[in-house]
Specification:
The protein has 122 residues and is α+β, with helices and mostly antiparallel strands. It has one helix and eight strands, in the order αββββββββ. The strands form two sheets. A four-stranded antiparallel beta sheet has the order 1-3-6-5, with no helix packed on it. The chain has a four-stranded mixed beta sheet with strand order 2-8-7-4, with no helix packed on it. The longest helix is centred in the first third of the chain and has 22 residues. One of its GO terms (biological process) is response to copper ion.
Length: 122
């Protein structure tokens, strides 16, 4: 009985050790263009977000709103063809002002993460 308990404890510890990298493997935002908090001289024609892993396009989105909360881009965000960890959204010509980027993504594990940041166009 004691040997069975020891084997079960060792098996549980091994399973937890092997599974731990997957438990923490949620897609997280690594960088953005324009950068969070940036003030840019020229309005960008797209917002590009780079994540720590490939994102699932069906469960991922980017919205850009102006200072009054009005959505300025109506297209759907698309993954970069060369790097599926990058999500891109084409935006129309942006006037001077502050814009908020809201994003939501799901990685390979299906866990959904979201966040937001602002940038300013001079």
């Amino acid at each position: 009985m004691k040997a069975l308990r020891t084997v079960m404890v060792i098996a549980a510890m091994a399973a937890a050790t092997l599974a731990s990298p997957y438990a923490a493997a949620h897609a997280s935002l690594k960088s953005s263009n324009p950068a969070a908090g940036a003030t840019v001289d020229a309005a960008p024609n797209e917002v590009a977000l780079t994540f720590s892993e490939k994102v699932e396009p069906a469960f991922s989105s980017i919205t850009v709103t102006d200072g009054q909360g009005k959505t300025v881009a109506t297209d759907k965000a698309k993954p970069d063809t060369a790097n599926p960890a990058i999500l891109r959204l084409t935006v129309p010509a942006l006037a001077s002002g502050t814009y908020t980027v809201n994003w939501a993504v799901a990685g390979h594990d299906g866990h959904r993460r979201k966040g937001d940041f602002k940038f300013t166009v001079k």
